[in-house]
């Protein structure tokens, strides 16, 4: 192969070259097939060779490839916005299209600030998020995120307007003999206390992932958590922004993850599954109240990107909804997720180094521990997550291991988010290959210890 000039994520990684996709599999230049059990990063909800999505790209390219939104409103964007508005909960009736999750979250943060400027509350400038959250890599989104490792080297550049409270993580945060309701009450009180310390009139928004993805490994809230959080936000006039970039678009079993929590936020950020990996696209869904405030005021959102409402990307978004909703692929998520969860529990439920198996739908995580009884994590210097990823790839399995699960430094988990077209045979292969990869990695850790 010719010498490479791509700037990779990691300069010391010698990655295989992907050349083709076939259903749940990616194929490298040597012909090796890799079973995609994580959707890349919970992106490939419809696999890697969906005929309708490929046709949508072709047809839109023939029709119209690009129209700048300062001059036109692209027809595919209008159509996709209407469909998302009709499918979303509550009155999230306005859709702002971007090219990915970080852009969607940056848009949410800036819109929250401008909304309060428009309605005459310019003192509202603070944003509260949660520790161990992830909201994107751009500086505003990174400031909002609560993963200490990701934040560390950029800390001098991060915004002081961002503040953090505890996540809702029952396995790690719930006290012995504490009921779910008492745990919810405690977390809601912590948020309320933070708001009071900052000054309720200065807080603009609370930001959270309904099911936490990359940084904690598919952690769902306990029942009632988001309803309690919404009550706190409403009491203080604070916007609730839900980041569904990873957990949305059907990944947890409903098109929007928050539908299962019984809340309607003021904004929802989506991406990843909206384009299924076939085009880069994200979106911010906004309530009528926020949109109407801008329309009645300046009428101008002081923000923007070159590829807003890109026709090719929006055409794919429409085709994704065709497949998920009209072709009922979304209906597979809950039953197949239950089968995958059962298979994981059957294989790893009593594993001495698997402390917790959790998630919703086809969004599942396994938290790895050195000691199940104490929940003590492995020494981060052992690099267990990286070893699992390498061993899994050798077995022809793509999974999403990550370190720093507990506090941004210690702890390891494995995230699984296969395409929604996964079948029983795929599930058996995922569990078998993951078992082999985990055992190889644990042997390597024992040898290093």
Descriptive report:
This protein has 449 residues and is an alpha/beta fold. It has two domains: 18-49 and 330-448, Aspartate Aminotransferase, domain 1; 54-326, 3-Layer(aba) Sandwich (Aspartate Aminotransferase, domain 2), CATH 3.40.640.10. Helix content is 38%, strand content 16%. It is built from 14 helices and 15 strands. The strands form three sheets. It has a seven-stranded mixed β-sheet with strand order 4-10-9-8-7-5-6, sandwiched between helices. Strands 1-2-3-13 form a four-stranded mixed β-sheet. A hairpin with a 4-residue loop joins β2 (25-28) and β3 (33-36). The two termini are 38 Å apart.
Short description:
By secondary structure, this protein is α/β, with parallel strands linked by helices. The chain has helices spanning 39-42, 51-63, 75-87, 101-118, 139-144, 148-152, 170-173, 180-198, 225-236, 288-296, 311-326, 333-348, 384-394, 424-448, and strands at 18-22, 25-28, 33-36, 94-98, 126-130, 162-165, 203-208, 239-243, 267-270, 282-286, 354-360, 363-368, 397-398, 400-403, 412-416.
């Amino acid at each position: 192969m010719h010498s490479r000039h791509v700037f990779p994520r990691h300069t010391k990684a010698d990655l295989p070259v992907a050349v083709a996709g076939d259903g749940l599999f990616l194929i490298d230049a040597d012909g090796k097939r890799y079973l995609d059990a994580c959707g890349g990063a919970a992106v490939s909800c419809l696999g890697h060779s969906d005929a309708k999505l490929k046709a949508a790209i072709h047809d839109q390219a023939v029709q119209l490839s690009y129209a700048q939104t300062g001059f036109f409103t692209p027809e595919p964007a209008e159509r996709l916005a209407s469909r998302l508005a009709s499918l979303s909960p509550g009155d999230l009736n306005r859709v702002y299209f971007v090219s990915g999750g970080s852009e969607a979250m940056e848009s949410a943060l800036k819109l929250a600030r401008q909304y309060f400027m428009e309605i005459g509350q310019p003192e509202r400038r603070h944003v509260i998020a949660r520790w161990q959250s992830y909201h994107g890599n751009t500086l505003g989104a990174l400031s909002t995120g609560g993963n200490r490792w990701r934040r560390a080297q950029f800390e001098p550049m991060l915004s002081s307007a961002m503040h953090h409270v505890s996540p809702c993580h029952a396995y790690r945060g719930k006290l012995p003999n504490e009921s779910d309701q008492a745990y919810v009450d405690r977390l809601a009180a912590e948020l309320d206390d933070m708001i009071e310390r900052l000054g309720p009139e200065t807080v603009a928004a609370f930001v959270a992932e309904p099911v936490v993805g990359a940084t904690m490994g598919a952690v769902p809230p306990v029942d009632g958590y988001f309803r309690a959080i919404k009550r706190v936000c409403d009491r203080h006039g604070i916007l609730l922004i839900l980041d569904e970039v990873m957990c949305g678009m059907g990944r947890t079993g409903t098109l929007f993850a928050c539908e299962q929590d019984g809340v309607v936020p003021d904004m929802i950020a989506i991406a990843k599954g909206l384009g299924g990996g076939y085009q880069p696209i994200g979106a911010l869904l906004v309530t009528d109240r926020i949109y109407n405030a801008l329309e009645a005021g300046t009428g101008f959102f002081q923000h923007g990107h070159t590829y807003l409402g890109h026709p090719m990307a929006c055409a794919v978004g429409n085709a994704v909804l065709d497949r998920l909703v009209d072709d009922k692929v979304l209906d597979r998520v809950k039953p197949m997720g239950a089968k995958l969860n059962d298979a994981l529990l059957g294989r790893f439920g009593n594993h001495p180094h698997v402390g917790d198996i959790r998630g919703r739908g086809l969004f599942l995580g396994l938290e790895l521990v050195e000691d199940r009884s104490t929940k003590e994590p492995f020494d981060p210097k052992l690099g267990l997550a990286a070893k699992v990823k390498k061993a899994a790839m050798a077995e022809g399995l793509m999974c999403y291991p990550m370190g720093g699960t507990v506090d941004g430094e210690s702890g390891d988990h494995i995230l699984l988010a296969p395409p929604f077209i996964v079948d029983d045979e795929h599930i058996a292969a995922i569990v078998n290959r993951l078992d082999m990869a985990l055992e190889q990695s644990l042997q390597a850790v024992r040898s290093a210890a």
